[in-house]
Amino acid sequence: MTAHPTPGDIEGSTPIAGRKLVNLALQGVGSHGAFTWGVLDRLLEEERLAIDGISATSAGAVNAVVFAYGLAVGGREGAKRMLGLYWQRMSAMASAGIFQPSLIDKMSGKFGLDHSPGYVFVDMLTQFLSPYLLNPLNYNPFKDLLDEVVDFELLRRRPAVKLFLCATNVRTGKVKIFSSEELRSEHVLASSCQPLMMHAVEIDGEHYWDGGFMGNPAIFPVIYGCEACDVILIHLTPTERADIPTTPRAILGRMQEVTFNSSLMREMRAVAFVTKMIDEGKMRGGKRMLIHAIDAEDVIGELSNSSKMNADWDFLTHLYRIGRDRADDWIAANFDRLGVESTVDLKTKYL
């Protein structure tokens, strides 16, 4: 086990003169979360921004926890360092597994695993056998990695930002929000649990799957639990596709995208409705939310669906660089509009 760093100066939720206080909402599907890593890395360099709260799901939850822990132990530079460390270790761990891109996959430019013998074999098995049969001992090296990188006890004791991790209760079908003061690695696993690949994660007698089914991510926690009115959504899952999927794998992939975006679209419709009521003077005292997005939909849309399981370092750093560039462009174009107006047309994108 690697020794955890000692607590340092906390930078994050405490606003100072000249800073704009914002919330983050982080989507995530596996390796595609490396795009968000790049976005966060660039946002951490923006001294004019302070983070109030983060709502996150799946790989977004991983990024959120590592980000917050890094802030707690080393400020902005600590957060950058811990995010880089996590993704490096995750890639190194995956390099010892069977999900390796083949030469054909690498030549395709779509960063998938469609021709990887290991991936094809496991993908086929999961269509017939549950993870309870394939992995009866419930071995999960991802938990060990999280506990190695993040000192959850310290994170609970000294939260640098408010955290809200989304999971789906398997029994009730309702969204469950885990907040900063209770977080352990099990909560991150619950938010990231792919039902065909992992056992449902048991916490306090309830079982949980990936939060994307009911909140990708949920927006209401930062509306009610944070001071900031601005929400910057790191949007990974494509809402639109130009082509109709015709193969079984493409159909399943698109079904997951539609499912994972549905809860977000409902919440955005609610935000648009409340905003309209406030603007028309029909709702006094309502909190007017300002919505922004740093978008990776076009990038993810060009990738193979199986790329979300590809942890090859070249692929992760490719997404990281795009994320940094997108964040840089977004800051240049929209920073002055923070606290003033939304930079996403909710009607066009979500209604």
Instruction: Give the helices and strands as they follow along the chain.
Output: EHEHHHHHHEEHEEHEHEHHH
Overall pLDDT score: 92
Helix percent band? 40-55%
Question: Count the strands?
Answer: 8
Ranges with pLDDT <50 over ≥5 residues? 6-15
Report the sheet-strand fraction: 5-15%
Give the CA-CA distance, first to last residue: 48 Å
Largest sheet: 8 strands, mixed
For the CA atoms, what is the radius of gyration?
A: 20 Å
Number of helices: 13
Overall outline: globular
Structure description:
With 351 residues, this protein is of the alpha/beta class. The radius of gyration is 20 Å and the shape is globular. Helix 10 links the parallel strand 7 and strand 8 (290-295). Helices cover 46% and strands 14% of the residues. Residues 6-15 have low confidence and may be disordered. It has helices spanning 33-43, 59-94, 103-108, 117-126, 131-134, 141-149, 152-157, 185-192, 220-225, 248-279, 297-301, 313-334, 346-350, and strands spanning 20-26, 49-57, 162-169, 175-179, 201-203, 206-210, 230-235, 290-295. The N and C termini lie far apart (48 Å). Strands 1, 2, 3, 4, 5, 6, 7 and 8 form an 8-stranded mixed beta sheet that branches.
Topology:
Blueprint: E1 20-26, H1 33-43, E2 49-57, H2 59-94, H3 103-108, H4 117-126, H5 131-134, H6 141-149, H7 152-157, E3 162-169, E4 175-179, H8 185-192, E5 201-203, E6 206-210, H9 220-225, E7 230-235, H10 248-279, E8 290-295, H11 297-301, H12 313-334, H13 346-350
Parallel strand pairs: 1-2, 1-7, 2-3, 7-8
Antiparallel strand pairs: 3-4, 3-6, 5-6
Helix pairs in contact: 1-2, 1-12, 2-6
